[in-house]
Design brief:
72% of the residues lie in helices and 0% in strands. The protein is mostly helical and 54 residues long.
C-alpha cells in the first residue's frame, strides 16, 4: 500500500514538472509576443516629455 502511494506520488510529481516546463515555455513565447507588440506600437514608445508640457 505504502509503495503504491509513493509510486502514485512520484508519477504526479513528474506530471507536474512536465506541465511546469510546458507553461514556462509558453510564457516565454507569450512574453516575446507581447514585447514585439509593444515595440511595434507607438503607445509604448518613449517620447520626449518636454514636448508634452503645457
Amino acid at each position: 500500500m505504502m509503495n503504491a502511494d509513493m509510486d502514485d506520488l512520484s508519477a504526479r510529481v513528474d506530471a507536474v514538472k512536465e506541465e511546469n516546463l510546458k507553461l514556462k515555455s509558453e510564457n516565454q513565447v507569450l512574453g516575446q509576443y507581447i514585447e514585439n507588440l509593444m515595440s511595434a506600437s507607438s503607445v509604448f514608445q518613449t517620447s520626449d516629455t518636454k514636448s508634452k508640457r503645457k
